[in-house]
Amino acid sequence: MTEEMEEVMVITITSPDGEEKDFQEVDAVEIDGKIFSLLLEICENEDEAEAIIARVDEENGEPVYVEPTEEEFEAASKAFEELAAEDEE
Predict the structure, then answer these.
(1) If residue 36 lies in a helix (H) or strand (E), which one and from where to where?
(2) What pTM, to 2 d.p., does this model score?
(3) Burial, 11: exposed, middle or buried (Cβ in 10 Å; 0-12, 13-18, 19+)?
């Protein structure tokens, strides 16, 4: 029996105080032509994992994860909540 491993892309985010944390993308939505990712912290205790929303910009052909504006955050939060509600149905 062969088990397939899903490849996980690790995204390292540096907080304003300089602390680095590793995250993985859980989901993504497009709003007004911009991509927003729901990122879940990779840590040993999943109950303590932090979830964040990042806007995905592109720089030199590579994705760059940046903090969304307050309005973008609210719109992305609502979109992710709607997706979660659909998944529960």
Answers:
(1) strand 34-41
(2) 0.83
(3) middle
- Which helix (H) or strand (E) covers residue 25, if one does? strand 20-31
End-to-end CA distance of the chain: 33
pLDDT beyond 80 at 2: no
Residue 1 clears pLDDT 50, i.e. is over it: no
- The Cα-based distances of 88 to 16, 49, 53 in angstroms read 35, 21, 21
Nearby residues of 58 by Cβ (< 8 Å), 6 or more positions away: 64
Residue corresponding to tokens 């990042």: 54
